[in-house]
Amino acid sequence: MQEQHELYENARKRTKQKKRLYFHFVLFIVGSVFLFVLNRVLKVGEGFMEDWFVWAILLWSFFWILHFINVFITQRFMGKEWERKQTEKLVAKQEKKIEKIQKKLERESQHKAESNFYLEQERIKPKSNLSNKQSITLIAAIAHNNALGKDNDLIWHLPADLKRFKSTTTGHHIIMGRNTYESIGKPLPNRTSVIITRNPEYKVEGCIVVNSLEEAIEVAKNDASPYIIGGAQIYSQAIKIADKLDITEVHYSFDADVFFPEIDSAVWKETSREKFSADEKNKYDYSFITYQKK
Ligand SMILES: NC(=O)c1ccc[n+]([C@@H]2O[C@H](COP(=O)([O-])OP(=O)(O)OC[C@H]3O[C@@H](n4cnc5c(N)ncnc54)[C@H](OP(=O)(O)O)[C@@H]3O)[C@@H](O)[C@H]2O)c1
């Protein structure tokens, strides 16, 4: 209805404009004849200028042409309707731009929400679940028959192994079972000693005492490379969650009461091996071997 009314109003206006132009044309023709008669027949203004009626008609025709342009060009193409269409085009363009910006913002906020989600997931990971950057290493000296120790003590004395142990673990957390700690007898310098025991009353000055392997790993969560240093009970539990094994293999078999668990070749891949012969300080042949979890 609104559109119909607008069309009707427009048609009425256009008819009026054309009618006025037509009337102007008739007036121009009659006026031109009148001016001709005034100038040529009645000789009005002859002393002032000869054939002035030509200039008057030219001037008038100029105004009529302006009127014509106004009706058929300015009003037709650039009237209210033209203005409205131009506005509509501009509005449509702006709406498209706004839509694009909104989509971009939506994408950005979705991306942000996803990042926050992953950050939150990282934050609420179970305590035993470590960040990808952390690598847990089991470090041990193992005899040919997997022997680790006897009567809560080491069986052999291999200074090269002790030196390697010291340089590897310095600056890191060393996680051990209560028996191993008592076999060593004191916290090792320049390392954070973490002792695992089921005894809630157990306390050692200069060491962190925890009641499970998971708790020990949690305590060391800010260490990119914590070391599990034994003994047999702790190795057998921790080998399931370790990423790397740093093994000193002593090429000799010993009588022992604690043993290192089997290194399953389906799970572990040997990545380096250095063999050394016995010398005056190190009584047995030995190898430094590294395994990475497959
Ligand atoms: N060759 C090597 O490289 C090497 C390295 C380390 C040790 N060793 C040898 O290994 C021997 C010691 O090993 P081990 O097997 O007898 O003892 P261990 O593994 O050092 O310690 C065992 C103790 O740890 C605690 N424990 C174990 N699992 C636990 C858990 N899930 N939750 C809480 N507490 C837990 C218990 O303490 P509580 O009884 O207090 O509850 C348990 O008695 C010694 O002979 C030592 O010399 C050898």
Widest beta sheet: strand line-up: 5-4-3-6-1-7-10-9
* CATH top level label of the largest domain: Alpha Beta
* Apparent shape: rod-shaped
The profile of the biggest β sheet is: 8 strands, mixed
Indicate the proportion of strand residues: 15-25%
Total individual domains: 2
- Please report the number of helical segments: 7
Kindly report how far apart the N and C termini lie. 78 Å
Poorly predicted ranges (pLDDT <50, ≥5 residues)? 124-131
Question: What's the helical proportion of residues?
Answer: 40-55%
What value does the average pLDDT take?
Answer: 90
Give the bound compounds: NADP nicotinamide-adenine-dinucleotide phosphate
CATH superfamily (homologous) name of the largest domain: Dihydrofolate Reductase, subunit A
Tell me the total number of β-strands: 10
For this structure, the CATH topology of the largest domain is: Dihydrofolate Reductase, subunit A
Q: H/E order of the elements?
A: HHHEEHEHEEHEHEEEE
CA radius of gyration: 50 Å
Q: What structural class do you assign from the helix and strand content?
A: alpha/beta
CATH architecture of the largest domain: 3-Layer(aba) Sandwich
